[in-house]
Amino acid sequence: MSTATTTATITVTASTEDDNKGSVSTEATLQSLYNRAARAFLHRDVAVTFTLLNSAFALLPPPLAPSPDPLDVHRRKWDILRITLETTVFSSAPNLNTLPQPLRESLLSSPQSFISDSHARSLTLFTPSSLPRNPTSAFLPHQVLITLVASSLNVDCPNIGREITEDWLSKRGQYDFVPSTGEPYHKVLELYCLYVLPRLGEWKYAREFLSYENELSSDKRRELHLALEAQYVRAQESTRRTPPSPAPIPPPRSLSPTSSSSSLSTTSTRTIVPASPLPKLARQQSASSTSAVSDVTVTRSIRHRHDQSTPRGSPSASRAPTSRIPGFLSVDRSLITAQPPTPFALTRSYFGHYFTANKIASLSILFFLIPLLSLIIGRRRRAETPMAQVRRRLLEARGDSIARRLWNELVRAVLDTVRMGGGGLV
């Protein structure tokens, strides 16, 4: 009986020694790989670093029980290196041809998904596999948590960093072997109140959080309060120094003395003065219905006359654009807001353009005086005596020209009209 007991004790002791030897060998291998991986990371050799990370995590399974494990230190160091490598690749512009496939695929994720996936892998790595529960932040070391939050700030996702920190604060202290009080708690709280919440603009909430916090000592709480206020003052000063970006103003068109006349004529022809001014139209338009149109037309005609009367290259021509262009521009703006003319005003403008004083005089002669003279001549012929008829026929037989006969008839008609007027017959 004693022989069997002795044999069993020797067997257990041998197995324990073998486990210790295996653990020591694994730790030595992990330390050797870590030195090589850290050196490769410092030399920016992403491919070698990633290969050594995969080799190390093959030797680092999650712990079996919620108790201290000799490999916890190596899990923490390797997980921090993994998060740092992936964040560096994600936030920079690496050469895709030299990146391993998993890192290349991570570049396709959004910053929120990237941080969430990294946090989930860390929880899986530190949560004991014997527990029938999902991975939890209760086993997450504060060093890994700080690295994850810093990574979220680096990729501009402070909201994800806030969720991770608040989840750790709500679940810490469940297991005594996981440090979560004292200095670890102070470091996490400093990162949360001085970096995460200010990044989100939650200055008021950060002050309230520190005022209700009762685990830190009064000195450390006061230090955090002072640091928060100093950071708030710097943020306000930087906001005041940064002026709002003004709207771009187009540069004014330069008017040189040598080319002012030519540039003015080109600008006036295209934008201000019409090619054919209509001064008569402006004089005959109604002042009540088309005042804006008439003012613009008169102003344009005056400008057109001034351009015609002033020779090119003269001093007055070079000074004219500077003093008159703003006035014309303001008139054009009033044209835009003026009411459209009525149909009656358009009709008057149309007839006023075509029926001028000279044209009315010509039409009066054509359609009034000539028919009146024809009527007088016809009535005279009907009232003439037989002697006058004989005289007229003799004149026609004499073969005078048409112009001469018209002239004789006109003279006779005028003389007869005067004679009849003197006799009181007209």
Structural topology:
Blueprint: H1 2-42, H2 46-58, H3 72-91, H4 101-106, H5 111-126, H6 142-154, H7 158-171, H8 183-199, H9 203-212, H10 218-241, H11 260-272, H12 279-284, H13 291-309, H14 315-337, H15 343-354, H16 357-383, H17 386-398, H18 402-422
Helix pairs in contact: 1-2, 1-3, 2-3, 3-5, 3-6, 5-6, 6-7, 6-8, 7-8, 8-9, 8-10, 9-10, 11-14, 13-14
How does this structure look, described?
This protein is mainly α. It is 72% helix and 0% strand. The protein has helices spanning 2-42, 46-58, 72-91, 101-106, 111-126, 142-154, 158-171, 183-199, 203-212, 218-241, 260-272, 279-284, 291-309, 315-337, 343-354, 357-383, 386-398, 402-422. Helix 1 packs parallel to helix 3 (72-91) and helix 3 packs antiparallel against helix 5 (111-126). The relative contact order is 0.04.
Compact summary:
The protein is mainly alpha-helical and 426 residues long. It is 72% helix and 0% strand.
Give me the number of helical elements: 18
Outline the low-pLDDT stretches. Answer: 1-19, 250-337
The whole-angstrom Rg is 53 Å
Helix and strand pattern: HHHHHHHHHHHHHHHHHH
Structural class: mainly alpha
Mean pLDDT, all residues: 74
| Helix percentage range | over 70%
Count of β-strands: 0
Instruction: Classify the beta-strand content into a percent band.
Output: under 5%
Distance between the termini: 176 Å
Principal-axis shape equals rod-shaped
How would a textbook summarize the main sheet?
A: none
